[in-house]
Amino acid sequence: MPSDPDIIPFGHPQLDRARGALARLADRLAQCRRVGGASEEISDLLSRFVSEAYRYITLEETWLKDAGYPALEAHLLEHQRIIEMLAQASMDVMRARPDAVERLCESLEAHFIEHIRGRDGQIARFVASHPETVKTRG
């Protein structure tokens, strides 16, 4: 697990590592954009981030279902919204639309990173305060 103070661990090592990896990729992407990094490097980071984000969402949803998380439906709807946003922004990048990369980066920061640092933190706090409701932690 990274030292990112905004990420509260779930207590699920694989998920905690995946969330930390996404936060680190987002930080690298933001840093690369700030210093005017090469478009190839930014594209590579974006591609890796989107790929890891899809894997993370799948893993998290499976765990939440198995754990019996009570706010599952609302969380799944948020994931659906994020996936639709990522898909549309990724298509814009592939079509080489003007400013598409910048919009995708901004969307990732505004939606997905807020999600893993905010909404997923709510899950971690729930798990910590209601361990009896969690059926699986593996």
Please give a structural write-up.
The chain is an all-alpha fold and 138 residues long. The protein has one domain: Up-down Bundle (Four Helix Bundle (Hemerythrin (Met), subunit A)), CATH 1.20.120. Helix content is 75%, strand content 0%. The chain has four helices and no strands. It has helices spanning 13-34, 39-67, 72-94, 100-129. The longest helix is centred in the C-terminal third of the chain and has 30 residues, at 100-129. The protein is elongated and about 50 Å long. 23% of the residues are buried. The mean pLDDT is 78.
List keywords for this structure.
138 residues; Four Helix Bundle (Hemerythrin (Met), subunit A); mainly alpha
Question: How would you sum up this structure in a few lines?
Answer:
The chain is mainly alpha-helical.
Shape summary: elongated
Class by helix and strand content?
A: mainly alpha
Q: Mean pLDDT across all residues, rounded? A: 78
SSE arrangement, N to C: HHHH
Taking the alpha carbons of the first and last residues, their distance comes to 16 Å
Return the CATH class: Mainly Alpha
Helices and strands in order:
Blueprint: H1 13-34, H2 39-67, H3 72-94, H4 100-129
Helix pairs in contact: 1-2, 1-4, 2-3, 2-4, 3-4
